[in-house]
Amino acid sequence: MTTIEHEHYRVLIDEPEVYIDNEKRKRSGHMTHAMTEFAPGSFIDFNANCSPTRCGGHSVYGWVEYRISQDAGKTYSEPHDFPYSVESFLEGNWTISVEKAVTAPDGSIVALCLRNTMLEEICCEPWLTPMCIRSEDGGETWGEPYECIPYRGRIYDAVVHDGVIYAMIFCNEHFLGSSPEHVYRVYASRDCGKSFEEQSVVPWPDTTRRGYCSMIFDRKGILHAYAYNEAREREMDHAVSEDCGKTWKVTEPCYVAKGIRNPQTALIDGVFILHGRGENGRDFVCYSSEDAVKWDEGVYLGRKEGGCYYSNNINLRDEKGDFLLIQYSDLYDGWARVNAMHRILRIEKKV
């Protein structure tokens, strides 16, 4: 058990458990950690089934699987192949990753998919335009994929607020920004993921050497956006919107003592959580905050260096109360052959 102590609360994080044992089946699992709850206690959990040899296991050369849990993660179904990813892989056109998934107001699962050509060894860049695909029956069947955003790039986050799906994309076919047209755009869907329209461009003045991003609504309905800065890994770019992403105010960067890459955010029991890779591409770090602006000193949840610790999370509830399920990749061999792991995070309030 890992504990973060604060005046009004403590963060309790269970020990890790292996979710997908890629070592046993001689595979890897780069990217694709999307999860979404589509009914109380029932959620879909995506994972990658990738080559363990191409790029040392750090490619998305393979396809996507998913499992269903109907008891808040105590048990899971047998794996299902995600049909769109398998068909794309077999046709040789591109590889598919499911970066984020959300549940629409009508209960549909909305999977936001990245596309990459297979020409590069790593084959998780350059990115093509992203696609969206929906399931109206809890992952039993899937509709037809469609291009949801006309810009090449990577959707990094998606959230649902007051019946609207918001998605943020970095419009750059490669990882780090290098020119003025590489901007972060926010898109919105008001028809349960059947279409998306552009809301805004987050007006960060310089996106050079930026990549990754995360979004979260706070308790007042203010939307926070964060971006990774390769040049200053302990300073996370920050902007806020009081009108659901239509207009933005750029604020001072958020300081994170152990750095942050691939930032993932959550709000549980009134406490904000931030987790991701630490600075210099090593360590798995976790922070907490009461206002989504000032973050604590953080703790290390892993201390390895390599192509690991890509992560995601989902809010769930069991007989003990609310908890955050964190899924992430962890090295089992070499530089980037990874298993998928689970850890449970809970908040304990102090009287």
User: What is the CA-CA span between the terminal residues?
Assistant: 21 Å
What fraction strand?
Answer: over 45%
> N-to-C SSE series?
EEEHEEEEHEEEEEEEEEEEEEEEEEEEE
Q: What is the alpha-carbon Rg in Å?
A: 19 Å
What are the low-pLDDT stretches, counting only 5+ consecutive residues below 50? none
Approximate shape: globular
- The helix content, as a percent range, equals under 10%
Overall residue-averaged pLDDT value: 96
Number of DSSP strand runs: 27
Number of helices: 2
Question: What structural category arises from helix and sheet content?
Answer: mainly beta
Key descriptive features of the protein:
mainly beta; six-stranded antiparallel β-sheet
Report on the structure:
- The chain has 351 residues and is mainly beta.
- 4% of the residues lie in helices and 50% in strands.
- It is built from 2 helices and 27 strands.
- The strands form 6 sheets. Strands 1, 2, 3, 25, 26 and 27 form a 6-stranded antiparallel β-sheet that branches. Strands 16, 17, 18, 19 and 20 form a 5-stranded antiparallel β-sheet that branches. Strands 4-5-6-7 form a 4-stranded antiparallel β-sheet.
- Strand 22 (271-277) and strand 23 (282-289) form a beta hairpin.
- The longest helix has 9 residues, at 83-91.
- The radius of gyration is 19 Å and the shape is globular.
- The mean pLDDT is 96.
